[in-house]
Amino acid sequence: MPPFAANATNLMAVTTFWPGSALGSQQELRGRGPWLRRWTPVMLLGGATGAALLLLTPPDAFKRVVPFLVLAGSLTLVCAPRLAQRRASGSNHDRVLAIWLALLALYSGYFGAGSGVMILALLLTLGEPHLPTANALKNMLVGAAAIPAAILIAIFAPVHWPQAAVLAAGILIGARLGPIVARRVPSDLLRWTVAGLGVCLAVWLWVDPSA
Fold it and tell me: Per-residue pLDDT tens for 110-132?
């Protein structure tokens, strides 16, 4: 399908991150309600803004910069433990987290490819050193950004609904079962695996921007 329609269909399907992760990550999300209530509005606003930009700007506006964003997120994920040891504390920490979450929420609503890798790297560096918990929080944030984006996309963009339904089902199952795997796989192995997949995605998007 055309790149714009493929992007719209993908953004629509990603909404199932939210219920899937909420069901599968109850252990990791326990006690994190106040944190999620604080940052979810940022993701909602950013996701809506990103979708609006998608509808109002040329579809290939981010075509060449996306691979570098995904690659940066993947490399940050590899270095997350060392970066976390040097991270700022106090109000500056919260300010940095707020700025980056807002930018990544906007990106999630606009395009979304690799946004999970980047948000996971951000949380491991600035917020949550425990990878399964950071992964659960990341899924909730990605889902939050997807909700307003999906509403705008459904109204104004060409969505291929059969493909969106199949993709959404896979995302729902993955978000439900993924936390079970994350609890059992060594954190370093999981971190390197996700980073490696992110690098592969970055190379693919660079070689074939229409993907």
Answer: 877 778 888 888 888 887 788 88
Residues 205, 207: Cα–Cα separation, whole Å: 6
DSSP 35-65: HHHHHHHHHHHHHHHHHHHHHHS-TTTTTTT
What are the pLDDT digits (tens) for 130-174? Answer: 888 988 999 899 989 999 999 999 999 889 999 999 999 999 998
For 35-46, give one letter per residue: b (16+ CB within 10 A) or e: eeeebbebbbbb
- pTM summary value: 0.82
pLDDT of the residue at 90? 47
**In contact, 163 and 170? CB cutoff 8 Å:** no
- How confident is the model over 74-81, as a mean pLDDT? 73
Q: Which tokens sit at 103?
A: 């930018």
Structure tokens belonging to residue 134: 């950071």
3-class DSSP state for residue 88? coil
Collect all residues with Cβ–Cβ distance below 8 Å to 81 and sequence separation of at least 6.
124, 129
* Residue 82 to residue 101: CA distance in whole angstroms: 20
Domain map of the chain by residue range?
A: 3-59+67-207
A 10 A CB-CB count for 208 gives 8
Over its C-alpha atoms, the chain yields an Rg (Å, rounded) of 16
